[in-house]
Amino acid sequence: MTRKGRRLALIGSSLAVVAVALGLVLFAMRSNVTYFFSPAEIVEKNVAPGTRLRVGGLVKEGSVKKESGQKVVFAVTDTTRDIAVTYVGLLPDLFREGQGVVVEGVLDSHERFSATTVLAKHDETYMPREVADSLKKQGHWQGEAKAGAEAGSAPKK
Amino acid sequence: MIVEVGHFALVLALAMAIVQSLVPLWGAARDDEAMARVGAPTAVAQCLLVTISFLALTWAYMTSDFSVENVVANSHSAKPLVYKISGVWGNHEGSMLLWVLILALFGAAAALFGRDMPLKLRANVLAVQGMVSVAFLLFILATSNPFARLVPAPAEGRDLNPLLQDPGLAIHPPLLYVGYVGFSIAFSFAAGALISGRIDAAWARWTRPWVMIAWIFLTLGIAMGSYWAYYELGWGGFWFWDPVENASLMPWLSGTALVHSIIVMEKRDALKVWTLFLAIVTFSLSLLGTFLVRSGVLTSVHSFATDPQRGVFILAILVIFIGGALALYAWRAPMLKQGGIFAPISREGALVLNNLLLSACTATVFVGTLYPLALEATTGEKISVGAPFFNLTFGPLFLPLLLIVPFGQALAWKRGDLAAVTQRLIFAGVAALILVGLLWAVTSGESVLAILGAGLALFVIVGSIGEVIGRVWRKGVSLPLALRRAVGLPLSAWGTAFAHAGLGVSLLGLAATGWGVEKIVTVKIGEIVPIAGYEVRVRALEPRAEANYSETVAAMDVLRDGVKIADITPSKRLYTTRQMPTTEAGIATIGFGQVYVALADDAGPDRVGMRLYWKPLVLLIWIGSLVMAFGGALSLADRRMRVGVARRAPARLAPAE
Amino acid sequence: MIWALFAALTVAALALALRPLLGAAGGGAAARTDADFYREQLAEIDRDLGRGLLTPEDAEAARVEAARRLLAVAPGAAGPTAAPARAARRLSALAIAVLVPLLAVGVYLKLGRPDQPDLPLAARKSDDPAKLDLVAAVAKVEDHLRRNPNDGRGFEALAPVYMRMQRYRDAARAFSEAARLLGETPDRLVGLAEADIFMANGVVTAQTRRTLERALAADATYAGALYYLGLAAEQDGDTAKAVSLYERILGSAAPDDPSYAGVRRRIAQLKGGDAAAAIAALPKDDQQQAIRAMVEGLAARLSENGQDREGWLRLVRAWSVLGERDKAKTALADARKALAADAAAIGALDALARELGLEG
């Protein structure tokens, strides 16, 4: 094989690999990424039922109901709208009412959601990024424990 | 006082690093030998100073010195000593100090072991290494000072995140950092060579051991981290395509490419420009990983810190170093002479294909990790890119790579004979096909991917080991002769075989996840749950209280045919200081497989909810990684690899007098 | 002592760094060139071969390679020369010797606390045996309460200790147990609310608000309840309500009580902070108007409730700044009347009047 031929083989195979990689990425981007919405945005953007997505917000106080066989029903709220979430399985350790949560699964309707994964915040100062953002937008999130520190200066009677 | 000495030592280390990055560079540029030689002793001094600093912080942790803010935030007097010590790097500030310590250790090692390198190259390499140190020391002192004091000191600390209170954490970050930071040497060598304007196979020979060390540790670090997530997070998964995991996978992939391309460069004087580029890219990806984890742009289990100021600082470091190195590359690389020609079908050709595929894999992971961030930054839309994306992009690129592994190993340099190699690999191919057939028959065709994966894994294992065996033993060769030959075979050949076989072993473990079983049940005490030929019986539920947590332990037996074979105690813990609940999985290892139990929230006084898994051959995933790292270590131990880096009669090194 | 250590570190580091520059430069260690390097490599290959560390084929290959490189670098490859420019070397040595200590000490003085001794826990424990076993004492009480779960006093005693240990969940439980067993008092309810708020990172949840309202129903002037309800109102974005709640705290307090300084500051921030920003955004003429309206508002408020010393001082100053000397004087007189009982306030008013030249 000539030097030129060798070079062509090298360039050709590089281009082939790059093309395959690019094709795969573009194809996977179309169908295999999950969008994130808050309950209000689902209605706002009129997301079609059957879509796979992530929904984030707070677990509504008093909404968690454990049913038979590890089935759990609870409401995720962004304080404007709620959505009822059904989930079968173990809830994460830090799943609590009034705390941030992200659920991934399929939208049944604008009011109902079947989750396959539930992610809760991982420690006291952590909140799923999406949740923190969407709550911040609505002015419900104080950011770290600033407000708590402020509260510490409260006068005692 | 010890704390303040540590603090001062850190500042002084910065001053030393500045000297290290300027004087040798200047000296090399104006051919002044004495100035060029300043690099080595300053690198050593910087390393000693950072070590003092790190020890001082460790001391503060060990003695629970709560006048140090960092200790207050991340420690507690009731914590076991081991976790007090591992707490040093279990937080942002301390882990950055560890990062710099490892950087300085590598710098000093390069200074001490590089005494045989041409002086100019060595001066440039150490200067670049010094610049990286300067950047990160500045970062620590300006935004993340672990020595900040808190007066008056509080009476008690605020504990370490209990998720992180685990032997896994004690080892995982240091391993990972040695890997990440180790590539800084490759980067410095590349930049040094570009500055010197000369590069040849000897460069490859000096650089290769460092790349190998970094690769070995990164391999171990990733494996360790994945095992930690597997048993500590209680979800039974071991790889989540989490951005933090991807951040360590990217340098591993391009580092693996580098390990291979540098061999081509050393042996054949080819692929020089490409190898330099890979060296720069690999460390850049390490920096990117540090940025992703440390800046808080991703918030996940691993991100203990969020502070935009830090993010911007690291981003600046990232831009300066990557931009600077690539600019230098664009300017100087065209001047480098190309050498070594080879036919497409040859060991070089196979390694080029390996590099192409690995680079493409790196690129897909890069896109999948950064695209969501870029999209959110530009349009505000939030998406998550998870396992389905990576399975679809990474998988099809990585699998062909596995297929060519045995071929590449068996092909000759310069011009190979594909037909002959195929003939030699027929044995492995047949073995793989038989395995596929057998599995197909036994599982009646369930989970095709797992079966094919297992077949491919066997092909890689048999092909890799078989190649070495083929070199020492043929029909008619007596056993003693074969053994003698095996001993005479260079260690690096064994290293290659082991590393490749390890890859196959890991793949086998991964393929076997296709046969895993998962069950979610709520049971009464005494009830028996069957799972994949085994049975799990809940014996009792016991509350228990320890110094810093209280827990509910479910004592369980694992039975086979009614006979008890293992005892497991999964539990739900509540760490008191942080009021943080965690799930401790109960794991029974049976052969290479595991029965894995994670508890749910209490279902009642005599009932318990749980998630049960049978994970066949799951341990092979990590055993394979260990074998890979072992292969790397063998290769590193090869005498020939070190010719050129080897020691002479111990020359004078400037000791502190 | 500590500075002696710093000096020792610095000197040691400098000794290392300066050695090549000052030491045997020029002579001594000969400059090693690339050619030397390959020559040595050739010798080493022979040695290794002799010791059987390399196979003959490998050795041959390595030898060929090294020889080739030796040829490539040999002509004119002088490497760095040792001779030239001692001056530059001296200069850089001097620069290092001066700048390194300067930089280190300068940066350290800015960041460090050289006067601050180590405070290992062990040493502090022996200092203060009382503090020693807070943890152990708590454990003992916890144990006692596990056996006597109806001991309300025990929970009551433990709750504030939990708060101090930042164990908010336990504190909340203890407060609510105490309230259940001993009856609800504003103290217990506010304690519970406070624990809940800390647990929620400072957010006052709806449930917490109900707890606080119960406390306030029992004691309408309870400062803690007012404060946290004010915080809740702030979090709802209802600044006016927050201010009125905060002002109720001050209404029931001595005006110069320093423990209320935080509340006063908060009120000032809520009133001033947002308003000031809003005003700054207005065009010039409107700005004057808006400021005037604000000052008028302040005057109106003070005519209803004259006990606000800060308010009076601000009013007098504001009129004076706006150029309304007469109004300033009137306000000053009104203030003296309203605050006649408060000697400190009168003093402050006198001082202000002198400062602004309103007297005489």
Description:
Chain A is α+β, with helices and mostly antiparallel strands and 157 residues long. Chain A has helices at residues 3-31, 39-44, 129-137, 146-151; strands at residues 33-37, 52-59, 65-66, 71-77, 82-88, 100-107, 112-120. Chain A has a five-stranded mixed barrel with strand order 2-4-5-7-6. In chain A, a hairpin with a 4-residue loop joins strand 6 (100-107) and strand 7. Chain A is elongated, with a radius of gyration of 23 Å. Chain B has 20 helices and eleven strands. Chain B has helices spanning 2-29, 33-36, 39-62, 69-74, 81-86, 92-113, 119-143, 167-196, 201-232, 243-268, 272-295, 308-332, 347-379, 387-410, 418-443, 448-472, 479-488, 491-512, 619-637, 639-642, and strands spanning 383-385, 517-524, 528-531, 534-545, 549-560, 563-568, 571-575, 580-584, 586-590, 593-604, 607-615. In chain B, the strands form two sheets. In chain B, strands 3, 4, 5, 6, 7 and 8 form a six-stranded antiparallel beta sheet that branches. Chain B has a four-stranded antiparallel beta sheet with strand order 2-11-10-9, with no helix packed on it. Chain C contains 18 helices and no strands. Chain C has helices at 2-22, 34-50, 56-73, 86-111, 121-127, 129-132, 134-147, 152-164, 168-182, 186-199, 206-218, 223-236, 239-251, 261-280, 284-304, 309-321, 325-338, 343-356. In chain C, helix 10 (186-199) packs antiparallel against helix 11 and helix 15 runs antiparallel to helix 16 (309-321). Classes of the chains: A alpha+beta (157), B alpha+beta (657), C mainly alpha (360). Chains in contact: A-B, A-C, B-C. At the B-C interface, helix 1, helix 2, helix 3 and helix 7 of B face helix 1, helix 2, helix 3, helix 4 and helix 5 of C.
How is the topology of this model organized?
The complex is a heterotrimer of chains A (157), B (657) and C (360).
Chain A: H1 3-31, E1 33-37, H2 39-44, E2 52-59, E3 65-66, E4 71-77, E5 82-88, E6 100-107, E7 112-120, H3 129-137, H4 146-151
Parallel strand pairs in A: 1-2, 5-7
Antiparallel strand pairs in A: 2-4, 2-6, 3-4, 4-5, 6-7
Chain B: H1 2-29, H2 33-36, H3 39-62, H4 69-74, H5 81-86, H6 92-113, H7 119-143, H8 167-196, H9 201-232, H10 243-268, H11 272-295, H12 308-332, H13 347-379, E1 383-385, H14 387-410, H15 418-443, H16 448-472, H17 479-488, H18 491-512, E2 517-524, E3 528-531, E4 534-545, E5 549-560, E6 563-568, E7 571-575, E8 580-584, E9 586-590, E10 593-604, E11 607-615, H19 619-637, H20 639-642
Antiparallel strand pairs in B: 2-11, 3-4, 4-5, 5-6, 5-7, 7-8, 9-10, 10-11
Chain C: H1 2-22, H2 34-50, H3 56-73, H4 86-111, H5 121-127, H6 129-132, H7 134-147, H8 152-164, H9 168-182, H10 186-199, H11 206-218, H12 223-236, H13 239-251, H14 261-280, H15 284-304, H16 309-321, H17 325-338, H18 343-356
Helix pairs in contact in C: 1-4, 2-3, 7-8, 8-9, 9-10, 10-11, 11-12, 12-13, 13-14, 15-16, 16-17, 16-18
